[in-house]
Amino acid sequence: MPILNYLDPSTIDFSLNGSSKEGVIAELVAILKRAGKIEDQAALTGTLLEREGLGSTGIGHGVAIPHGRSREVTRTVIAIGRTTGQVDFDAIDGKPTRLFFLLVAPENGSNDHLFTLAKIARLIKDAKIREQLMTVDSPEAVIELIQSQETP
Questions:
Q1: Phi-psi bin for 19: left (phi > 0), alpha (psi -120 to 50), beta?
Q2: Distance CA 15, CA 36 (A)
Q3: Which residue out of 21, 33, 37, 67 is catalytically annotated?
Q4: In CATH, what number is assigned to the domain containing residue 83?
Q5: How far apart are CA 13 and CA 56, in angstroms?
Q6: Confidence (pTM)
Q7: What is residue 29's DSSP assignment?
Q8: In sequence order, what DSSP letters do the residues of 16-71 get, joined into one string?
Q9: What is the mean pLDDT of residues 137-142?
């Protein structure tokens, strides 16, 4: 399933203020709450932090993809955030992180979210795309950029 199927302009925010892994994850979950995608913000934050304890989702090059399964969603959702500063997310390259793709799938759903996770990772592997995602100035521009990469 295309990444676009899970994107919503209301779940994209370029002004995250979190200065820690926990803070950023809490802000991304708050975005989902404000957009009406989840009910229990604390439960989802706890689930994601527990997953993060198994190994960092900081994939390097300034990007992290925190993800998990939760009963808080009935369909896969994505929140995209960018910080104004730099966050130590325990990334595999040891460098600070600024761009975040939060992916949450239903607890009892299929493994389709793994394909979406792989698509996000492939997308941001491209240095040009990463740079564009670090500088775009609207949620619609993010969606347009991703659409341009998913359309053959």
A1: alpha
A2: 19
A3: 67
A4: 3.40.930.10
A5: 22
A6: 0.95
A7: H
A8: E---BHHHHHHHHHHHHHHTTS-S-HHHHHHHHHHHHHHS--EEETTEE--EEEET
A9: 96
Residue with tokens 């955030």: 81
Q: What is the span of the domain harbouring residue 22? A: 3-150
Residue 61 known to be catalytic: no
- Average pLDDT over the chain reads 94
Q: How far apart are CA 28 and CA 47, in angstroms?
A: 13
- Would you mind telling me the total number of residues written for the chain in this entry? 152
* Number of alpha carbons in the 13 Å side-chain half-sphere of residue 117: 17
Write out the two tokens for 31.
């975005």
Residue 107's CB: how many other CB atoms inside 10 A? Answer: 13
> Total structural domains in the chain?
1
Amino acid at 96: P
Place of tokens 């996770």: 117
Residue 152 has pLDDT above 90, yes or no: no
Tell me the C-alpha to C-alpha distance, in Å, between residue 116 and each of 7, 112, 149: 12, 7, 14
